[in-house]
Amino acid sequence: MIGTVNGDWASLTVANAGLARHEVRTVFQLGGLGLIPDDVDWRNLPAEPGRALAAYEHKLLFLDGPSDPLRLRYVPFDHDSGLPWSWHREEVRFVSSRIGYLPRGFRDEFETAQKFAVLGGGESDHEDRRVDDRDVEALGRGYADVLFTCLPPFERPSATDLNDKDAPSQAEVHRAFLAVRPRLLLATGSAFGAKTLAYATGLRTCRLVAAILNTETLDLEFIDDRGTRVEAPDDVTDLATQTTGRWLLRTQSSQHVVDLDRGTWERIPGSGAHRYDAPNTGLLRTFEDCAVGKSAFITTRSTDLLVDYYWARTSLILSIDRLAHGEGVDDVR
To answer: Which superkingdom does the taxonomy of this entry point to (predicted)?
Structure first.
C-alpha cells in the first residue's frame, strides 16, 4: 500500500521497486493519485504510471482522493444508460490494463477471506469530491475486517464534530467507521506514502515509502526507499504530548509549522484560507487543542506595546508530522 502520490510518478516507481522486493503484486493507493488532472479527459491517461507498474508487473487499485476529479459510486449496471461509469456488481473499474478504480462503497474479500470495504473522497472545495451521506449509504452497515479511506475518523468526536460544516467529509467517514466497525482502518494519514514521513533511525534518516498488509493476520510491515523493512514511527496526533522538535500541522485550509525548540510558529495559508488580522509568524506564547480532529488556538508574543498578544484559531487539523532537520514543508507529503 502507498499513500498520496499527486502525479509524482518518480516516487511511485520508488515505491513499486521497494514492494517488488517483497513479491507484492497488487498495490492499494490511498489519497490523491493525480492520475487525471482537471483539464484532461479521464479516458486519456498519462503513460508514466503504466510504465512504472509494468516494470514490476504490478497492478494498482486506487481510491479517489480530494484532488482527483473522478467520482464513481457503485450503481447497478444498466446497458441502456450509456454512462461509461456503470459497472457490474463487485467489479473493479479498470481504467487501463494495470490501473483499477475502487468506487466508493465497494466491498470484496482478500484471498484469505478477510473482508474489506472502500470509501474514497476527502475534504475539498469541490462539493462532488467530498464524502457525503450517499457514499455512506452505498457502503452500508455490514461488517468488514478492513476499511480503506482517504480520511481518518475523528479521534475523540463530539456532537459538534459530527455536525461540523468545516469537516463534512471527515464526519461522514466517522459515521461509516461506526457502521462498519472494522478491525483495521487504513487512511492516508496512517504514516505511509509515496514520499512521506522521515524519522531518525540510528545514524541515518529513513524514509517510509510503503506498507505491506498481511491479509491473513492484518499485520502491517513498513518499508523504506531501499525496500528494507523498518519499524514504523510513533504516530503523533496531539502536540501536547511533545516537548521538542519541529512539527507540521496540516489543516483544511493552511499549514502551520510549530518549532518547539525555538518557540516559534508560522502559518502558510492555502489558496482558500481566511485572512488573519494578526501576523502569520511569531514567538510562540501558548497553544491549545493542537490535535488531529480539533481546531488549535495559538497565541504569539507581541512587539507592539499596545497589544498584549496575538492569537489565531486554525481550521480543523487533519495531520501532524515531524519535520526532520533541514526539512521543509514541501518535503513532507
So the answer is: Bacteria
The three three-digit cell numbers of residue 163, written as one number = 455536525
List strands edge to edge, sheet with 198-201. 198-201, 204-213, 220-224, 229-230
Going from the C-alpha of 31 to that of each of 156, 173, 193, 203, 230, the distances in angstroms are 22, 14, 9, 31, 22
**Domain extents for the chain?**
9-230, 239-331
Please tell me whether residue 178 adopts helix, strand or coil conformation.
helix
C-beta separation of 314 from 298 below 8 A: yes
3-state secondary structure (DSSP) of residue 239 = helix
Rounded to whole angstroms, how far apart are CA atoms 161 and 277?
26
Question: CA 61 to CA 194: how far, in whole Å?
Answer: 14
Report whether 160 contacts 316 (CB < 8 A).
no
Residues 28-72 pLDDT 10s: 988 778 776 555 555 667 788 888 899 999 999 988 776 665 555
Instruction: Indicate the fold that domain 9-230 takes in CATH.
Output: Purple Acid Phosphatase; chain A, domain 2 (3.60.21)
User: Which SS3 state, helix, strand or coil, does residue 19 take?
Assistant: helix
Distance separating alpha carbons of residues 112 and 27, to the nearest angstrom? 17
SS3 per-residue string spanning 158-169: CCCHHHCCCCHH
Q: Are 102 and 120 in contact, with CB atoms under 8 Å apart?
A: yes
Q: What is the DSSP letter of 104?
A: B
Q: What is the CA radius of gyration of the chain?
A: 21
Q: Which residues, listed in sequence order, are joined to residue 286 by a DSSP beta bridge? A: 299
Provide the whole-model pTM: 0.64
Show the cell assigned to 132.
457525503
